Amino acid sequence: MTLSEKYKDEIAEILSRYPVKRSALIPLLYLAQREPGYVTEAAMTEIAGLLKLTPPQVYETATFYTMLNLKKVGKHHIQVCKSLMCALVGSDTVIGWLRTKLGIAPGETTADGLFTLSAVECLAACGTAPMMQINDDYYERLTEEKVDKILADLRTAGTSPLKSGPYMWPESAR
Ligand code: FES
User: What's the pLDDT tens digit per position in 28-42?
Assistant: First the structure.
């Protein structure tokens, strides 16, 4: 099923927000990612057609933003901020803990498909560094103890009370 068939009304609503069609590119890519967890080549081609862009124009945008995945990710996508403020207070150490505890490097997924680890640029929570985003939730002021608890919670309950909340596409910003 194509995106246009599946999300007809939502696509129309997104397009109605922008006087210039191409401005809807990122929201449409994000919509395309919602169910499979990544943006397929077919979706990029379809979005190019919808916005009268070339497929490479869509691809170069999709590859620029780390919030868009181009391949399947684990059930819990751990994105550790590695930008300056987080780096100054230990993002490398956080990535090191996760590498050891999960047995994977950034860009990899655990064999059970539960976790994918990524190192990403600033997620705008610099004041509570070091921090990471897992799926749509932020986890801030990380310590090794917190990381252990978060991983254990996600393994057992699929969520953790240590999250400070979702910051991606908050309702109030729509
Ligand atoms: S530098 Fe890490 S959230 Fe901004």
Answer: 999 999 999 999 999
What 3-state DSSP class applies to 81? strand
Number of Cβ within a 10 Å radius of residue 88: 11
142 lines ligand 1 (CB under 6 A): no
Sheet of 137-139, strands arranged across: 115-120, 76-81, 132-134, 137-139, 165-166
Q: Say yes or no: CB of residue 154 within 6 Å of ligand 1.
A: no
What's the pLDDT tens digit per position in 19-30? 999 999 999 999
Cα 87 to ligand 1 centroid, rounded to whole Å: 8
Please indicate whether residue 84, judged by its CB atom, sits closer than 6 Å to ligand 1.
yes
Residues forming beta bridges with residue 43, ordered by sequence position: none
